[in-house]
Recover the amino acids of this structure.
């Protein structure tokens, strides 16, 4: 067998060993085939963990076509192994913007009746340019915060034409994957790209949402002094109470050695900040799109740009200072490393698989718009993961149950 395919298979097998909860669902789906006759079009990071989800949906009876949701995140060996197994896979690491959209169009040409999207580019493309597909669409699932923000904007504008489950909003997704996953894998991406020592450095984390909290925690754990920047008062308060310095980026810019953006916003780091940074500062983004660091401004400000090593570019500024950019400003954990570890993706993708099953059960009964998965499904995922980790918990006694549902007993 071709060596690349073989490596992809080995990686998929390794992920399967660490995705026990999802593999339990797979065993059940394989027997019941709940996805028979369903055509699932996916735009997700093509990683080994996504490969395990693809195999799970296929074993449940679905036909699947997948494109990447980021030009730099595809693991080519995994893509080759999935294609070798008969899945329609469109993506390679280092796609151009044109190829990226061409690949989305290939998934659309497959005529999916369920979409699984990460960032909402597939859904947007269908709504903008392939509206004939909308009629037969059962529903969709969205993986990330940025995608949910875009979907809610579509919903508000009356533009969203089918029901979409906000899988990101499961507790077992954003409080796990975004927090523990992004926390660890962003640091992994920075280390692989630069091999810099984190201890003793000043790390500026922009955004104190689920991702930012995880990144700040892990950076502090490695010995960094962490500064947080925020725009929401409560999140800023949380960061301050968690013991981090909180200040505007204007003030943090001259202090940071490493800057990590995880806001889902645009131009969080911009010209006025680049100008005052220390020489040698490293700029990293782990938010969904490459909009958080103002790359056009950095490019126009720089006198020279050169690639120092894979995923690390050096920009020489007119002042004689240099700054480094990791992974072209694309999410560092997936571009420069391998994305989140399998264990945490197991929960995210249990959410995706169960959301597809939920859409099918509710077929025709959900209005176009953004929907949450019912709490019992989220709890089922927690139970599956606890059992995978060999953790057992207490049960309410009858008396406790009664106490918690009553109002008459006080002191
Ligand atoms: N790298 C990954 O693997 C990965 C994983 C999950 C989510 N994401 C992406 O990361 C981003 C953040 O996700 P999240 O779940 O933490 O979102 P979130 O909404 O929970 O948090 C984002 C925070 O950024 C703050 N913010 C917005 N604009 C800001 C600005 N200009 N300066 C400072 N703070 C600002 C918001 O107030 C908010 O508190 C999204 O784009 C999401 O899609 C990436």
């Amino acid at each position: 067998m071709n060596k690349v395919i073989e490596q992809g298979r080995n990686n998929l097998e390794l992920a399967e060993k660490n995705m026990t909860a999802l593999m339990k669902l797979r065993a059940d789906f394989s027997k019941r085939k709940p996805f028979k006759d369903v055509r699932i079009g996916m735009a997700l990071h093509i990683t080994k963990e996504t490969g395990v989800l693809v195999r799970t949906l296929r074993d449940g009876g679905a036909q699947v076509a997948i494109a990447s949701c980021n030009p730099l995140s595809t693991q080519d060996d995994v893509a080759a192994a999935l294609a070798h197994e008969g899945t329609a896979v469109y993506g390679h690491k280092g796609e151009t913007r044109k190829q990226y959209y061409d690949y989305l169009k290939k998934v659309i040409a497959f005529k999916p009746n369920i979409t699984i999207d990460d960032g909402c580019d597939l859904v947007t493309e269908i709504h903008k340019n392939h509206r004939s597909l909308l009629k037969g669409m059962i529903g969709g699932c969205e993986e990330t915060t940025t995608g949910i923000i875009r979907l809610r904007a579509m919903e508000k504008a009356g533009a969203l034409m089918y029901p979409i489950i906000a899988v990101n909003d499961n507790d077992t997704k954003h409080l796990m994957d975004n927090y523990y996953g992004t926390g660890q894998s962003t640091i992994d991406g920075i280390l692989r790209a630069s091999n810099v020592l984190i201890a003793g450095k000043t790390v500026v984390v922009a955004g104190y949402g689920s991702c930012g909290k995880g990144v700040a925690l892990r950076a502090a754990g490695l010995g960094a002094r962490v500064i947080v920047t925020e725009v929401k008062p409560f999140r800023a308060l949380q960061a301050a109470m968690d013991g981090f310095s909180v200040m505007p980026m204007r003030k943090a810019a001259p202090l940071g050695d490493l800057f990590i953006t995880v806001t889902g916003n645009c131009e969080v780091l911009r010209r006025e900040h680049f100008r005052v940074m220390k020489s040698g500062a490293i700029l990293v983004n782990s938010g969904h799109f490459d909009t958080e660091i103002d790359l056009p401004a950095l490019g126009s400000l720089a006198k020279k740009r050169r690639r120092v090593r894979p995923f690390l570019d050096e920009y020489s500024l007119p002042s004689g200072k240099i700054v480094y950019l990791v992974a072209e400003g694309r999410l560092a954990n997936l571009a420069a490393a391998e994305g989140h570890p399998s264990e945490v993706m197991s929960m995210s993708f249990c959410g995706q698989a169960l959301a597809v099953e939920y859409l099918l059960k509710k077929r025709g009964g959900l209005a176009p718009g953004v929907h949450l998965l019912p709490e019992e499904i989220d709890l089922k995922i927690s139970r599956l993961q606890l059992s995978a980790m060999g953790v057992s918990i207490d049960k309410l006694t009858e008396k406790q149950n009664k106490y918690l549902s009553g109002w008459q007993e006080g002191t």
